[in-house]
Amino acid sequence: MNTRLLWYLSLFVVLGRFQPVGLASAEPPTAPNFIVIFCDNLGYGDIEPFGSTVHRTPHLQRMAREGRKFTHFCVTAGVCTPSRASLMTGCYSQRVGMHTNPRDGQVLRPVSPYGLHPDEKTIAEVLQARGYATGIFGKWHLGDQTPFLPTRQGFDTFFGIPYSDDMTYATGQRLGDRLDGNRWPPLPLMRNETVLEAPADRDQLTRRCTEQALEFIESHQGRPFFLYFPQCMPGSTRAPFASERFKGQSRNGPWGDAIEELDWSTGRLLDKLVELDLAEQTLVIWTSDNGAPMARDMASPSRGTNRPLHGRGYTTSEGAFRVPTIMWWPGRIPAGSECHELATTMDLLPTFARLAGGADSSHGTVDGHDIRPLVFGTPDAVSPYASFCYYDQDQLQAIRSGPWKLFLPLTTFTKHPHFRPGDPPHPLLFNVVEDISCTTNLAAVRPEIVARLTALAEAWRRELGDRDRPGSGQRPPGYLGDGKVPVPIRHVPIRQ
C-alpha cells in the first residue's frame, strides 16, 4: 500500500477521535478561506495591540478591535526554519527533522542539500486535497533545491524568496568556504520555480508580495483558497528594508519603517476581503515566526522588542517563543475579545483541516490540536496542551504545563536565556501567567511542580530526542542524497 494512501486512511481513523465542542453556531456553511500572515522576527511588543508606543499600526488595531487577540500563542522554535516547518506540518520541528541538520546548523542556508521532506504533508497539501487554491507570497525557508520548493509541497503559486533576505551573495562572500558561502547566489526573487530577478530589490519585497497576494485573492474569489503570506520583514538584518513611502517615516528607524509597512500590507488585504464580500468567509491569522532579536541594549526598540516578556529571539525564552497573534473573521470570531490559553502554530493544520471539511493529522502523529473552541471563544474552552516543549535545536531546555514553565537543569548548552556557561545546573520554575517577565524562580517552593514537569520532559525526550539521544517519534529531513551536489539558484532571463 503506498504512503499517500496510508496517510489518507490515517486521517480517517484520527478523525473519529475528535468531536466538535459547542461549535454548532460557529461552523461555516461552506469551506472558508484561510490567510496566514507570518512576519519575520517581529517581537511581542512591536505592535500597538500588544503595547507598542513607537510603531503606528492602525490596521492591526482595527484587526484586534474586530477580532481576537491571543496572548499565549507560541511558535516551536526561536528561529526561522524550524518555526516554519512546524506551522506547515503541525509538528514539532524535531519530529520532522527540521530542527537542525548536519551542515547548516539551526536554519537552512542557500545551496543546502536539506529541506522539508517531500513525504511530509503540509497545510497546503491537506487543503489542496479539499479543492483549495493555494498560494505563498514571501519567504519560504524550508529548502531551496527543486524537490523542496513550495511548488513541490502543495502550493499552486509561489512568489517570493526561498530563504532569509540577508542570505545574499555579499554575505556568502564574507563567509567564504564556510557553509558554501562562495557558492551563494544573489538573492533570488522567484515566481514558482523560475528566478525573476537576482538580486531582488529588498526595499520592494513587502510591497510586491502584497500586490501579488491581492491578485491571488482577486483571481480565486470564486473558490476556497489558502493564502500563506510569510512576510520577509522586519527580517534578519540590522537595518530592515521598506519601500519609499515608508522609509524614514517611523519613530524607530528602519525597524519601525518595516513594521509600519507590514501594517499597511495587512490593511490592504483586509480591505480587499471586504471589497469582494469575502470577509465573512475568511479566517485571517496574523502572527510572527519568532520573537525579535532585540538590540544589545535591550531597552532600545531599534531591533524590536519582546517586552514585557523576558528574553530575546533565537533562544528558548518566552520572548522568543510567545508571539503577538490576532485572528479575524467577522461574524464568526467575537470582536474585541482575547484568548489567554496556550495555543501554537502547530494547531493551524488540524484546525484548518476540520474547518475545510474533515481531514485532520498526517501519519496520526501531528502534535497540534483542533483549537476551534479557542478561536471562536467557546465558553470555558481551555488549552488542549498537557505540556509544551521549548527546544534549542536538539536540546530540550524547558517545558510548560498550565501556567508553569520549567527550565531544566542542564550541564551543557550552546545558548540559554537564563544561564551562562559555567553556571551550576539548577531548575528554574516560573508562573508565566502571573509572572509574565519571568522574574521569580519558584522551584524551591514548588518542588512537586518541578518533579511533575521533569517527568513530562523525560517523556518528550523519549519521543523527540535530546542531544545525542534520538527519539522514537522522529522522522528524517529531506535530503538530496549522497553524491548529489546542490545547485545554486541562478537568474534565468525571462523572454519578453
Chart the SSEs and their pairings:
Layout: H1 3-15, E1 33-39, H2 58-66, E2 68-70, E3 73-74, H3 80-89, E4 114-115, H4 123-128, E5 133-139, E6 157-161, H5 169-175, E7 189-191, E8 194-197, H6 205-219, E9 225-229, H7 253-275, E10 282-288, H8 318-321, E11 325-328, E12 337-339, E13 343-344, H9 348-356, H10 372-375, E14 388-392, E15 395-401, E16 404-407, E17 428-431, H11 447-464, E18 478-479
Parallel strand pairs: 1-9, 1-10, 2-12, 3-13, 5-6, 5-9
Antiparallel strand pairs: 2-11, 4-18, 6-7, 7-8, 10-11, 14-15, 15-16, 16-17
Architecture overview:
- The protein is an alpha/beta fold.
- The protein has two domains: 3-17 and 29-375, Alkaline Phosphatase, subunit A; 388-471, Arylsulfatase, C-terminal domain (2-Layer Sandwich), CATH 3.30.1120.10.
- 24% of the residues lie in helices and 15% in strands.
- It has eleven helices and 18 strands.
- It has helices at residues 3-15, 58-66, 80-89, 123-128, 169-175, 205-219, 253-275, 318-321, 348-356, 372-375, 447-464, and strands at 33-39, 68-70, 73-74, 114-115, 133-139, 157-161, 189-191, 194-197, 225-229, 282-288, 325-328, 337-339, 343-344, 388-392, 395-401, 404-407, 428-431, 478-479.
- The strands form four sheets. A ten-stranded mixed β-sheet has the order 8-7-6-5-9-1-10-11-2-12. Strands 14-15-16-17 form a four-stranded antiparallel β-sheet, covered by helices on one side. A two-stranded parallel ribbon has the order 3-13.
- Helix 2 crosses helix 7 (253-275) and helix 6 packs parallel to helix 7.
- The longest helix is centred in the middle third of the chain and has 23 residues, at 253-275.
- Residues 1-26 have low confidence and may be disordered.
